[in-house]
UniProtKB/TrEMBL annotation:
Homodimer. It comes from Marinobacterium rhizophilum. It comes from the Bacteria. This is Ureidoglycolate lyase. Its EC number is 4.3.2.3. Its cofactor is Ni(2+).
Length: 166
């Protein structure tokens, strides 16, 4: 059985998978006559030449935990950002882009609820892993032509477990 280690989310740790969307620890400049900090260009929205960036809200239910991880997905044509709208912690499960996904590449992270993430195109990720039921996330991703969602299923013989309590 592979019990996934849950790492603290940071800009550096998440860099192989995309961008951390958080004000903490990020540069800013003042706008609005000095009343507002602008944490500028935290992430880039990628939609390819034919796509359109869109904003949606995901109202997610929690999955039974500990979770048996059976699948991952990726969006080859565009990025996908998840920003927590209610400040609740949530989990992120990712793996580097590529066609030969193996469970040894999986990386799990814990967001404290003040941090969002932006998956770069092609980065493998598990569908949203809310820890509060329900929870809401602002999602910025791509609408447009072409297949933008590949799924990968691990073999039944692979027992991969994600346990937020450990
Ligand atoms: N399918 C969809 O819109 N959501 C997934 O991409 C996800 O990452 O949750
Ligand atoms: Ni996705």
């Amino acid at each position: 059985m592979l019990k996934l280690k849950i790492e603290t989310l940071s800009k550096e740790a998440f860099a192989p998978f995309g961008d951390l969307i958080a004000s903490e620890g990020h540069d800013f400049f003042m706008i609005n006559n000095g009343s507002t900090r602008r944490y500028h260009r935290l992430a880039e929205v990628e939609t390819g030449t034919e796509g359109t960036p869109i904003i949606s809200i995901f109202r997610a239910q929690t999955l039974p935990m500990p979770l048996r991880v059976r699948m991952m997905e990726r969006h080859p044509l565009g990025s996908q950002a998840f920003i927590p709208m209610r400040g609740n912690p949530f989990l992120i499960l990712v793996a580097p882009p590529g066609d030969d996904l193996t469970s040894s590449q999986l990386r799990a992270f814990y967001s404290d609820g003040s941090q969002g993430v932006n998956y770069r195109p092609g980065v493998w990720h598990h569908p949203i892993l809310a820890l509060t039921d329900p929870d809401e996330f602002l999602v910025v991703d791509r609408a447009g032509p072409g297949n933008n969602c590949d799924e990968f299923f691990f073999a039944d013989s692979e027992e991969i477990v994600l346990d937020p309590e450990h």
